Amino acid sequence: MAMNEEDTWSLGGHRFHSRFILGSGKYSLQLIEAAVKDAGAEIVTLAVRRANTKKKENILDYIPSGTTLLPNTSGARSAEEAVRIARLARELGCGDFIKIEIMRDSKYLLPDNQETIRATEQLAKEGFVVLPYMYPDLNVARDLVQAGAAAVMPLAAPIGSNKGLATKEFIQILIDEIDLPIIVDAGIGKPSEACAAMEMGAAAIMANTALATAGNLPMMAAAFRDAIRAGRNAYLAGLGRVLTRGASASDPLTGFLRD
Amino acid sequence: MVKINGAKQDADGCTVAKWLAEAGYDSRAVAVEYNDVILPKEDYGSTVLRNGDVVEIVCFMGGGCGCRKDG
Amino acid sequence: MNEETKENHFFVDSEKLSEKALAKKHQLETDPSCRRDPMEYFPEMEQISSDVRDKVVAQMGSYDYTRYTAADVRRALNHETCGVEDFKALLSPAAEPFLEEMAQRARRETGRHFGNTVYLFTPLYIANYCENYCVYCGFNCYNDIQRLQLNAEQIEHEMKVIADSGMEEILILTGESKTKSSVEYIGDACRMARKYFKNVGLEIYPVNTEEYRYLHECGADYVTVFQETYDLQKYETLHLMGHKRVWPYRFEAQERALMGGMRGVGFSALLGLSDFRRDALATALHIWYLQRKYPQAEFSLSCPRLRPIINNEKINPLDVGEKQLCQILCAYRIFLPYAGITVSSRESAAFRNGIARICATKISAGVSTGIGDHEEKYTGREEEETGDAQFEICDTRSFRKMYEDMSSEGLQPVLNDYLYV
């Protein structure tokens, strides 16, 4: 599918064409390069973990050069822990991007919005390009804007659930009301759902589990790529008429006008 | 004894650079937190580990959204 | 349209003006170089840092309403939420054939946000002294009218008369003279108003944040400032003298009021002064951008058209007919479903009845734009001395009559639903 070269978006002064942010978890390093290529992704997320000497492989060797790395703070349970992980990530020397993930619940892995606001404020002050993962709440999103976030990443459904746009109405509100890019994150299970989120006006889609659990990972990466482009094009083209059933006839309201 | 990534190691008197090399780490691919403070790479050679020090060595791993702690 | 109605002729010379005053008036009218720079603040005017003005000006500058087609309007009406581009289409001439459909949509939006209610209020003019020369306004400093400022006793008397009619919300207005009607004078009127009314709004000259804070402490909670026109070049030719000439200070009044703790702010362009579509766009975007910055605030819009004034019967709203006004109001409602819309007594009773069924949420009743004549109006008893009016009103219905008429239109008149905290 054709990609509109003119249609770009930016984060922290970097300009991107692709609107697909790819997670690199839950699948083998050998598949990462193919996944990134077939997804057409320009941003890949990474986790920061204790180094293990036995594992000689460095994930960075598998990620095509020119890809923007987006470390996350997964594992953090408080703003302080997230800040600590973010600083370590920056020390690893791959730029200032950080995706904040703070979970105090290990069963559903739902983000802690209050802690996320605090971490965003601190890290933005330290010069990070902060992308907070959050439960879609308009007031929190506004606080994140105030705190200096570069984008807002609302969840579509519980992480890893592949349940699709469960929070659709609330994400639409964020898209309508927040001036930052809205990146729909977590829970997107199918390309059609990614497409629907893009039609709504999302700036980008982040997915991981949907690919990692697919029968053919690179093929699914390509399917997401095409779906995201289709949704984006539909958004830009302007959605047309939706016929509603049983349109109500009523008395004219404008009969009183004189001229 | 020095606590490195949660395990006690007999590394007293050794520099961070030397310990990393001997343990088989690629110092370019890791970040080091030394007693809760990030240690700049240029200080690896001059920082001598002492009894009671706590060291964390981290690197990037595959991760998407909400991956469990073990990646 | 014939030649006569294409432009308004505003300049009227009073025989009572001295030769010197007349000379100055004529110089202001004919020699732009003798007029102040409308972008230059007076020293006592607070300058806030805000990007809202630049955003509105940029949008207005790039708005070419001839570019929109019926297809754009159709698409806009089909969108569940109306974006800025959709709003631009709805304001365009291409939307005129869709007026009935826009009205149906507007009524649905009004119902979703306000139910079936219409709020009633009355304005109380307490002084008509004015230091500005705004060429279209009856209060302008060169216009030969009876000037008056009510004292505390007279204000209280007027308030009693209005409150006795059952009204619970009041809007206090003055001409724009800070020397005649000081912030303290207005504050005292607010304190008194709190005794008689549950809800007090102000429509006075723009002031600084701390002055808004003071007036809020005195009991006012809503501030309305009309920008008149968002077209700076046009504004400059209409507001020739006085503090009102400073265009950006006026633009930022609502934001200062919110910073000063006011709960709600009102906006308006005076339709007929300039290109009404671009002024309508700017008015709505002024709200839209401020709402994003101050999401806790309440917002309302008015939609006055030019009216004749004392000593100039010919002033008229030019190309803004009732259909155009209705289109603007429907577009406002669809784009800003949460905003209150007030329809002025400048419009006819038939128009106000009709528009209340579509999108208006607030209607004034028992209106006098003169000074100190509520008693006369409410009881028919003549007062000893009254001040002249700002403009001619069209809908002269009393509060009781309005209450009955709104009820018979199927609407629920509401006097108040407000909590002062």
From TrEMBL, chain A:
Pathway as given in its UniProt record: Cofactor biosynthesis; thiamine diphosphate biosynthesis
CDD domains the UniProt entry points to: ThiG (cd04728)
Entries under Pfam families matching the protein: ThiG
UniProt cross-references to InterPro entries, sorted A to Z: Aldolase_TIM (IPR013785), Thiazole_synthase_ThiG (IPR033983), ThiG (IPR008867)
UniProt EC number: 2.8.1.10
Transmembrane listed as a keyword: no
Limits of the Thiazole synthase ThiG domain: 11-251
GO MF annotations, alphabetized: thiazole synthase activity
GO BP: any one term: thiamine diphosphate biosynthetic process
Catalysed reactions, semicolon-separated: [ThiS sulfur-carrier protein]-C-terminal-Gly-aminoethanethioate + 2-iminoacetate + 1-deoxy-D-xylulose 5-phosphate = [ThiS sulfur-carrier protein]-C-terminal Gly-Gly + 2-[(2R,5Z)-2-carboxy-4-methylthiazol-5(2H)-ylidene]ethyl phosphate + 2 H2O + H(+)
Keywords: Schiff base, Thiamine biosynthesis, Transferase
Entry function: Catalyzes the rearrangement of 1-deoxy-D-xylulose 5-phosphate (DXP) to produce the thiazole phosphate moiety of thiamine. Sulfur is provided by the thiocarboxylate moiety of the carrier protein ThiS. In vitro, sulfur can be provided by H(2)S.
Protein name as it appears in the record: thiazole synthase
Automatic annotation (TrEMBL), chain B:
InterPro entries: Beta-grasp_dom_sf, Mopterin_synth/thiamin_S_b, Thi_S, ThiS/MoaD-like
CDD domains, sorted: Ubl_ThiS
Coiled coil, from the record: none
A family per Pfam: ThiS
Protein name: Sulfur carrier protein ThiS
Source species: Selenomonas montiformis
Lineage: Bacteria, Bacillati, Bacillota, Negativicutes, Selenomonadales
Automatic annotation (TrEMBL), chain C:
Cofactor requirements of the protein: [4Fe-4S] cluster
Sorted UniProt keywords: 4Fe-4S, Iron, Iron-sulfur, Lyase, Metal-binding, S-adenosyl-L-methionine
A Pfam family this chain is assigned to: BATS
Gene3D superfamilies from the UniProt entry: Aldolase class I
EC numbers on record: 4.1.99.19
Gene Ontology molecular functions: 2-iminoacetate synthase activity; 4 iron, 4 sulfur cluster binding; iron ion binding
Keyword GTP-binding: no
Enzyme class: lyase
TM annotation in the entry: none
Domain Biotin and thiamin synthesis-associated: start-end pairs: 302-413
Protein name per UniProt: 2-iminoacetate synthase ThiH
Species for this entry: Selenomonas montiformis
Encoding gene (name): thiH
